[in-house]
Amino acid sequence: MVKTLSERLGAFLTGLKEGRAIPDKVAQLEAVRTYKRVRNRDYIFKIELHGAGDIVRVVNTTAAGWLFIITGAAVEFEGLESNRFPRVSVKFPMFSPDSPFDSEPKNLETVPAGLVFGREGVPGLHFEEQKNLFYVLGETFTIAAEALNDTPVNDIRGTLVLTGLELDLRNTGV
Amino acid sequence: MNYTQITQKVNELKQTQGFEKTFDFTREFVAKAGTADTFAIPLPTEGPYHQKGYNIMFTKNSSKTRGGNTESICAVKIRFRSQADNAAQSNDYIPVQLISTPGAEDASRYGSRPFSHLYPAGDVILIDYDNRAPAALVAGDAYQMEDEKISICICGDLYPGINLQ
């Protein structure tokens, strides 16, 4: 027997009766304010390498009062001679003396970008999730890129986007 | 259930459950060739809006020629701002080709990119865009810039009646 629209809608609504209750006004405000104190943010870095052994450093300053946590990175290269992934290393010589989580300087190893971000023969955009790579609290930090010795003679331009979360630590005593 | 019972049930649910509602919307603009400008998206005045993510599609009408080879590109760069606090969520212009998933018009989609930001009620999302030719990397590179249509779908939750002040 074919159910009427009312019957079908009624059955659907009956299934919703155990839904989540409205929190009280204080809880509502607190829940929404939490979102106000956490936001996503991207930082972009552009590098150009001209020949083997070339090293460039890009400097960036994060927002004052906001703790920046890297959650991922994307990189794109152009100027490739072929579909080879460029022999470019990217270094995060990170230090975070003001970080509440890590008071010691933190230096990471130089890693070939091709190993971190890409697959051989697939140039272009690659995204890689990073696990709490480092923390920055309104600091200046530097990223260095180096063309390895067997880098093709082509000039290479790289665009590196760091994606992350920022936590509002203003007026928290941190 | 008859019609009256359904109406009563809906009112009951409305009064007792949830305080947020999903609000997704799509806006399109044309990034004129060789220009940089701002596109504004007014948000609802019902309450704060929590943006959770976005998807971008774009045309690839522009082209780059190197060594006789021409490829279609979209060189548009964008950044988001909140009119209320004027704070850039991105500290620089990010190429749409890097933050779309994967972006090309009519390409298959695999979900929006998570991106969280809370806007107060009635705020305006400002999207600064730049569709000027990039600086040539290699001597002889030539860019032919054309108008590009950018479609952005923003998804998130709306919190009616919540006053953040």
Q: How is this fold's topology laid out?
A:
The complex is a heterodimer of chains A (174) and B (165).
Chain A: H1 5-15, H2 25-36, E1 38-50, E2 55-61, E3 66-78, E4 88-91, E5 111-112, H3 113-117, E6 126-129, E7 135-137, E8 140-147, E9 155-168
Antiparallel strand pairs in A: 1-9, 2-8, 3-6, 3-7, 3-9, 4-5, 4-8
Chain B: H1 3-16, E1 21-22, E2 25-31, E3 36-42, E4 49-58, E5 62-66, E6 69-73, E7 77-82, E8 94-95, H2 96-99, E9 113-119, E10 124-130, E11 142-144, E12 148-158
Antiparallel strand pairs in B: 1-12, 2-12, 3-10, 4-9, 4-12, 5-6, 5-11, 7-8, 7-10
- CATH topology name of chain B, in short, is Jelly Rolls
Beta-strand percent range of chain B: 35-45%
Mean pLDDT of chain B: 85
CATH architecture of chain A: Sandwich
- Shape estimate of chain A: elongated
Task: Show unreliable segments of chain B.
Answer: none
Question: What's the CATH topology name of chain A?
Answer: Jelly Rolls
What's the count of strands of chain B?
12
Poorly predicted regions of chain A: 93-110, 115-126
Q: Main sheet of chain B, how many strands, which sense, barrel?
A: 5 strands, antiparallel
